[in-house]
C-alpha cells in the first residue's frame, strides 16, 4: 500500500509538471521513469524500521530509545504484575530459596506503570549490562550494593527515591507494592545526567521463510519446575493459530494487571547455569559466563542448543553459530539443571 500511494503521488506530480511546464520540460523516457519508480520503492522500504530487540516494526523514534531493565517481583502476592507484557526481553532467575524474580528489559515500549519493583542481586545487574540499560530496582543485597556504588551501571533505586520517583500502591502490602513509571524513569535519568538515547545493538532474527523452515521436536506445552509446588512453576503453552506462547504461574495466566492483556512470546530460551549459595540468607551466585546446555523453543518446535555470553547477552548457539530468534518477544529462563524442564502432554 505504501508503494501504491507513493507511486500514485509520483504520477500526479509528473502530470502536473507536464501540464504546467510543457514548454520547458519533456516527459521522461521509459528508462528515466523506471529509475524514478525504483527510487520510490527504495524510499518506501526505508520507511519500515524494526525494533532491535524484537525484530518487529516500530516507530522510528523508538529505535534510539535506551533500554531500561527493571527488577520485577514474582511472589504470589505481586501477581499479576504491571508492564511485563511490554517487555522485549525477560529473564526469569532464582533469587533466594525457590522464588524467582524477573529482569524485564524494555526498549521498544516502556510502560506507564511497571512493578512491583524488587531489590537488586549481582547477576541481574550483570545481565542488564548486556544492553547498556538503565537499571531499576528497589533495594539491594550487600554484593549488589557494591556494584551499584561502584557505578557499574546507571541506576535508579527505590531506597533513594521511595515516595518520589517510586510510589507505594495501596492495593498491595510492602514489599510487594513499589511501582515506577516511564515518566518518572525519564525524570530520574535526566536529573542524574544519564543518557536516555542509545544505539542499540540488534539481535539476529529469522526471515519469514526461515521461520517456516524451522526444524525441531514438536513441543506445544512444557513446564519449568523451580519447585515441586505449583506456586513456583512456570508453564508455557504454544498457540498454533496465533503462533505465540502463553505463560502461566502455577495455573494463572501471566497477564497485565491494568489491561488484563496476556504475555505473548515468540522465543523461550531455557539455559542451564551453575548456581551456588553465597551466604547464610541463601543468596546465590550464578555463573553467567561459562556457557553450557540449553533448549530453544520457537514456533512450537524445540531444539537442543548451547548458550554463550556474548558481550553480556545470553545467546543460543548451534554448531558454533548464533541461532537467530523468531521476531517477537523473548523470555529466558535460567535454571540450575535442565532436568527442571518437563514436556507435558501434547494435545
Automatic annotation (TrEMBL):
Residues 1-18 form the signal peptide. InterPro entries: DUF3048_C, DUF3048_N, YerB-like_sf. It holds the Pfam family DUF3048_C. The keyword Translocase does not apply. The keyword Signal applies. Residues 53-194, 224-332 form the DUF3048 domain. Keywords: Signal. This is DUF3048 domain-containing protein. It comes from Metabacillus halosaccharovorans.
